[in-house]
Amino acid sequence: MKKMTHDELVKQVRQHEEVITQLLEIVAVTNRRLSELERRQTDQYLLT
Length: 48
What we know:
This protein is mostly helical.
């Protein structure tokens, strides 16, 4: 395994941080959609 330089490590960590941020944004959007769906289903149930 190749030894990484400090700059390479910093670059790799930044890339990982970007991926983590993107994944967190996806999770947040999914949670909002699920909450909205649950709210709609609850509203529909209350109307019947």
